């Protein structure tokens, strides 16, 4: 199976649905590299869709943990003493969950169990990438795969990351580290990007969907009852 890797969604539900229209479940493994939540207007629906997608496509879909999922987990477990998540989109996300009559704690075990990377012999995917500084899988390491913003090391295989928005809205390949950054700033009004690769890391194409204004406009707040079954209505089985 080839790979379809999607960057930081940040609650941009409608944009995410449009990008998922380009996924071929029968021939492509879907990997989302973290930060499904907050910033945009539809975090609860984005989380619910991802959760249901994973249930249906158990072995061919992988949702990785981003730093915003980790911040949400910390908050829900009472471990966020400095209100880091609340001050970085969490306050608005919790209000959205309340408006949708969805309990964020229902998704806590799933989010807590999310892997922090996915790899095969040729490709490794993580939220922020491998810096070579400290333990890369330490959830609190500022230079680890959840938080790193330093240059990446070359792992001898292709890295695909997000986390650091590209202001020009274009995915970027770095030859020195053999890596792609595909965070094209969906919540900033740019676009949401997915990249398609052969399983050996050979580039096939990138697909960028302009951010749907509903996902970021203050005038379009989430409302209860939207898309009662988004999986059935929007994913090709």
UniProtKB/TrEMBL annotation:
One Pfam family from the record: Metallophos
Keywords, in A-Z order: Hydrolase
Record-linked InterPro entries: Ap4A_hydrolase, Calcineurin-like_PHP, Metallo-depent_PP-like, Ser/Thr-sp_prot-phosphatase
EC number from the UniProt entry: 3.1.-.-
Domain Serine/threonine specific protein phosphatases, first and last residues per copy: 64-69
Matches recorded under SUPFAM superfamilies: Metallo-dependent phosphatases
GO MF terms, alphabetically ordered: hydrolase activity
Protein name: Metallophosphoesterase family protein
Species in which this protein is naturally found: Belliella marina
Lineage per the UniProt record: Bacteria, Pseudomonadati, Bacteroidota, Cytophagia, Cytophagales
């Amino acid at each position: 199976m080839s790979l379809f890797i999607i960057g930081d969604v940040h609650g941009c539900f409608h944009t995410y649905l449009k990008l998922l229209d380009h996924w071929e479940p029968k021939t492509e493994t879907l990997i989302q590299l973290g930060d499904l939540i907050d910033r945009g207007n539809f975090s609860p629906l984005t989380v619910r869709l991802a959760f249901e997608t994973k249930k249906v496509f158990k072995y061919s879909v992988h949702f990785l943990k981003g730093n915003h999922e980790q911040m949400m987990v910390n908050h829900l477990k009472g471990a966020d003493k400095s209100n880091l998540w609340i001050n970085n989109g969490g306050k608005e996300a919790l209000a959205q969950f309340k408006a949708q009559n969805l309990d964020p704690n229902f998704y806590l075990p799933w989010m807590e169990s999310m892997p922090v990377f996915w790899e095969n012999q040729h490709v490794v995917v993580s939220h922020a990438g491998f810096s070579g500084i400290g333990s890369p899988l330490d959830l609190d390491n500022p230079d680890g795969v959840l938080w790193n913003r330093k240059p990446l090391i070359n792992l001898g295989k292709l890295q695909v990351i997000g986390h650091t928005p590209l202001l020009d809205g274009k995915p970027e390949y770095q030859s020195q580290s053999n890596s792609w950054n595909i965070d094209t700033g969906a919540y900033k009004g740019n676009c949401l990007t997915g990249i398609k690769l052969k399983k050996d890391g050979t580039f096939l194409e990138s697909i960028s969907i302009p951010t749907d204004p509903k996902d970021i406009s203050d005038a379009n707040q989430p409302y209860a009852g939207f898309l009662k079954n988004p999986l059935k209505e929007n994913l090709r089985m």
